[in-house]
Structure formats: structure tokens, C-alpha cells
Design a protein that fits this description.
mainly alpha, BirA Bifunctional Protein, domain 2, elongated, Helix Hairpins, two-stranded antiparallel sheet
Length: 280
């Protein structure tokens, strides 16, 4: 079948949910160009200013908690050094400081949760080379091969006619949009996977079969939560989530590591079953 590859430079707001949610608040506050790159993703009006205001409150509470903890530690030391007749008053003062620390820590936790929820809504800034606008504003970078449209053909119906796909029993046991892949179709699928993986290995990629269940923070850091949460299956009471792409676990493969730039790029080819609620 004839076909080609079309490489586009997508508009800034397309795929805004993708990417790691590591926003540099200092740069957002101090660098207009960094902020402008985020605003090009068409974020909610007022989101960035609201986030910075909550971050200011968070930093203020953090300083207050640290100051109160320092005073509490000093008060505790004074109890041991104080004469017996002064200790009850010292103990009462230390107890009051402890209560105040607890109250401010509670307030800090609440503000931290608000700040985190806001940060998860902010996409990474768009590169300056990315065009503004919608789908119609995408720029064709280059066209490779023959991209002429091929005649429409219902491959699913054709597969049923050949006895390669069984949908009736699959629908009874699993619901619509499920099927048994059978006979030569299975061999073709496995052969295609093997062929693609071998090609990628020859290009320097490391073949990887990742876990298909991940924790919530992995989905967040890969940019799929909270935006696409409705499309994801959860298990174990929301402790684990089925991935919709190998990209999710692969993005966390080196989480928390410091990688020597001399060893870059790191190339991985992920092979996994993918789970999504969406049709298509």
C-alpha cells in the first residue's frame, strides 16, 4: 500500500496536556518570555496569576512555620535550664507554641494542596518555533513519500469475512469495540511488532516491556492527569492506573536520577498493551 509521512509543526495549544508538569515558578514570576510561552497554550484566564498568588501565600506560611518551629525548639531547651519555680510557665509557653505550629502546618498543607492542583493545570511553555492558532494554522515541515489518499476500506469487516476477527462472542463477554484476533492475523501482528522493534534496535533504541500499572504521580508527571483522567482505568481503589501508552511508564524510568549529559540521548522502544476508555 502506498503511503508517506507528513511532519507537521503543531499549533501551540495542541497537546497542551502532554509533557512533564514541572513548572519553574521563579521563571514564571520573573521571566516574561517563559510566561508568554505558557500563555500561548491558551490556559484558563487568571490561572497563572492565581497560581503565583497561592505560591506567595505558601512561601509566607512556610516561613512562619519555620520561625515557629525554631521558637518552639528554643522554648523546649529553656524548660530544662529554668529553675523549678519557672518551669510551669515555660511549659505552658512551649505548649502554646506547639499548638500554633500545628495550626500553621495545617494551613500550610491546605495551601500546598491548592498550589499543587493549580500547577497540574499549567502546561509546559511552547517553543518559540511553534505557531500560534488552531489546526488550520499548523505548518507542514516536510512531506516524505506518496501521501495520496487510498480508497476507503473497512478492514474490520474484511477481517470478519476472512475469519481473522471474531466480534460477536467478544461483544457478549466484554462489550462493544472488543474482538478476538485469530489465526494469521495474530502472526501478522506479532511479526509487525518484531519487525518494528528490530528496526528500532538497529537505530540504537533499547527494547522495553514496561509495567502497565502505575501510581497516580506517574500519570501526573507524564502530563495525563488531571486532564485525561476520565479516559484512564483505575484499579485497587485508585491506587494504580492502567496506562494508555508505554510513554507513561517510560517517562518515569529515570525519575529522580541525575543523568550525565554525555550519555544522552537515552532511546527506549516501549512495547505494551494499552488501555483507554475512549473510542478509536
Amino acid at each position: 500500500m502506498a503511503g508517506g509521512v507528513r511532519l507537521d509543526r503543531r499549533p501551540a495549544h495542541d497537546g497542551a496536556a502532554a509533557g512533564l508538569r514541572v513548572i519553574d515558578l521563579r521563571r514564571l514570576r520573573d521571566e516574561p518570555e517563559y510566561r508568554a510561552g505558557i500563555e500561548r497554550k491558551r490556559v484558563r484566564d487568571g490561572l497563572l496569576d492565581e497560581t503565583l498568588a497561592v505560591d506567595d501565600e505558601h512561601r509566607r506560611l512556610q516561613r512562619e512555620v519555620e520561625d515557629l518551629r525554631s521558637r518552639q525548639n528554643a522554648a523546649s531547651k529553656e524548660i530544662g535550664r529554668a529553675p523549678a519555680d519557672e518551669r510551669p510557665a515555660k511549659i505552658e509557653a512551649a505548649s502554646a507554641l506547639k499548638d500554633e505550629v500545628t495550626a500553621r502546618e495545617t494551613a500550610l498543607s491546605e495551601v500546598e494542596a491548592r498550589r499543587r492542583a493549580l500547577l497540574l493545570q499549567i502546561p509546559n511553555p511552547a517553543d518559540r518555533s511553534v505557531p500560534d492558532g488552531g489546526e488550520e494554522d499548523a505548518e507542514v515541515v516536510r512531506v516524505v513519500g506518496d501521501t495520496a489518499p487510498v480508497p476507503a476500506f473497512d478492514h474490520a469487516a474484511f477481517g470478519e469475512q476472512l475469519g481473522l476477527v471474531e466480534v460477536r462472542q467478544a461483544a457478549e463477554m466484554s462489550g462493544s469495540r472488543f474482538a478476538f484476533l485469530q489465526r494469521e492475523a495474530v502472526l501478522v501482528e506479532l511479526a509487525l511488532v518484531r519487525w518494528v522493534v528490530e528496526r528500532l534496535v538497529n537505530e540504537g533504541f533499547t527494547p522495553t516491556v514496561p509495567p502497565v500499572l502505575v501510581r497516580e504521580h506517574v500519570m501526573e508527571e507524564a502530563g495525563f492527569f488531571p486532564t485525561d483522567r476520565a479516559q484512564v482505568y483505575e484499579v485497587d481503589g485508585g491506587e494504580l492506573f492502567l496506562v494508555g501508552t508505554s510513554e507513561v511508564p517510560l517517562s518515569a524510568l529515570h525519575r529522580g536520577e541525575v543523568i550525565d549529559g554525555g550519555g544522552l540521548p537515552l532511546r527506549y522502544a516501549g512495547v505494551s498493551t494499552c488501555f483507554r476508555r475512549e473510542a478509536g
